[in-house]
Amino acid sequence: MSVQRIHLHLSKESLAFGQQLARKKKTSISKLVEGFFMAGRNHVHSGKPFSERWAGKVALRVPEKSDRRGTHLAKKYA
Hints:
mainly alpha, about 0% strand
């Protein structure tokens, strides 16, 4: 893969945060940005809606018996 330069305009706060994060992860800001773009690539080209990509991956908590408000809302909207 060939490397090309780009110029990004960042606020001082976001640049400081990026530098701190890069130090913590022992990498460079360029690698962080590249990772961000590459991670998003899968979702852009998947062709599936968000709801289909995340279906079954999130579990709802089971309400406690003492959760009167939650029980009431569950009955109301069931």
